[in-house]
Specification:
The protein is of the alpha+beta class. It has one domain. Helix content is 42%, strand content 17%. It is built from three helices and two strands, in the order H-E-E-H-H. The chain has a two-stranded antiparallel ribbon with strand order 1-2. Strand 1 and strand 2 form a beta hairpin. The protein starts with a helix and ends in a 5-residue tail after the last helix.
Amino acid sequence: MPQEICGIDDELKAIYHSKDTVCIWAFETRKDRNKFMDETIGMLKNDREMHFESFYKAKS
């Protein structure tokens, strides 16, 4: 596991895994992480990725 991921507080990470995939999303706040989890219950990986990109990804 890369140190960049290990260095992030666990309460700011949402993790999705299947038998061949692991995805980790990092959030600014615990509130955002919990909201994301509530909003994406039952979604598949691709739908969760699109939801994160639309509502949570930092704008550069």
